[in-house]
UniProtKB/TrEMBL annotation:
Record flagged with keyword RNA-binding: no
Primary location recorded for the protein, binned into one broad class: cytoplasm
Gene3D superfamilies: Ubiquitin Conjugating Enzyme (3.10.110.10)
Pfam families cross-referenced by the UniProt entry: RWD (PF05773)
Listed name of the protein: RWD domain-containing protein 3
Transmembrane segments: none
Domain RWD: 1-93
Gene Ontology CC terms: cytoplasm; nucleus
Cell compartment(s), UniProt: Cytoplasm; Nucleus
Keyword vocabulary terms for this entry: Cytoplasm, Nucleus
SMART domains xrefs: RWD
Keyword Cytoplasm attributed: yes
Organism: Smutsornis africanus
Lineage, broadest ranks: Eukaryota, Metazoa, Chordata, Craniata, Vertebrata
Length: 245
């Protein structure tokens, strides 16, 4: 595997790539990111999982299983043990994930899959009618009792939301179906240039936002510190730098 690390203001981040043999009759390349906070291992690491061979849902299941294992190693070094564990158990996690996916249509609303607070990270390409757009987003988040940030940094526009998953889904519907902006001719139009970067359940290490705020940052470092203060350094490292390319 490839093993890299770089120091950060609030701990250390490890980027690790491992190839797991004979999973679903093919090799699976897992891209793992572990952020170790300054009080690690007394505090669980923040983990991110990506793979071109797995679906986003499967990656989330792998992450959840790794966090479950991490809790068993609390207060002792665990990254190496977690890597060995997922190498040995990935095929079982994927098999279980497929079973859960097949059963999803029969689950009733309000089951454990929907419980708790969720978080959504969106990327907007542009805002032509910025003042009106911002006012609309503030109204939607207030009506749906969502907290978080609308963040501007240069050409980067991000919306980070926390709240009940049903309300987050309702927000997405509003965002995609309402005439929230104007086109190049000044005519009202729907948002067509939006990307859902991440939709995850809020974990214990993530800070809960108490309000929704609109903030502007003059540097990438300022934006990174916003994510770090919310316990989301791995989310920043995974999704924000690629937007600058």
């Amino acid at each position: 595997f490839i093993f890299l690390y770089f120091p950060e203001t609030h701990g250390i981040t490890f980027r690790i790539q491992i190839s797991v043999k004979e999973v679903l009759d093919t090799d699976v390349l897992l891209k793992l990111l572990f952020h170790l906070p300054v009080n690690y291992p007394s505090t669980l690491p923040d983990i991110s999982v990506n793979s071109d061979q797995l679906t986003r849902a499967q990656c989330m299941d792998v992450k959840d299983k790794l966090l479950e294992q991490a809790k068993k190693h609390l207060s002792e070094p665990m990254v190496h043990d977690l890597i060995l564990w997922i190498q040995q158990h990935l095929k079982y996690v994927i098999k279980q994930s497929a079973t859960v996916c097949n059963e999803k249509p029969t689950l009733s609303k309000g089951t454990s899959t929907e419980d708790g607070i969720w978080m959504l990270l969106l990327h907007l390409d542009h805002m032509r009618a910025k003042a009106k757009y911002v006012k609309t987003v503030e109204k939607w988040t207030s009506d749906l009792r969502l907290t978080g940030r609308l963040m501007f940094m240069g050409r980067i526009i991000l919306i980070l939301l926390q709240g009940d998953r049903s309300n987050i889904k309702e927000y997405l519907i509003l965002q995609k179906t309402s005439k929230v902006d104007v086109d190049s001719s000044g005519k009202k139009c729907k948002e067509k240039m939006i990307s859902v970067l991440c939709e995850i359940k809020v974990q214990s290490q993530h800070k809960r936002f108490q309000t929704f705020e609109v903030k502007e940052y003059s540097t990438l470092d300022e934006l990174q510190k916003e994510f770090e203060s919310a316990g989301l350094p791995a989310l920043f490292s995974e999704f924000v730098p690629p937007l600058l390319k």
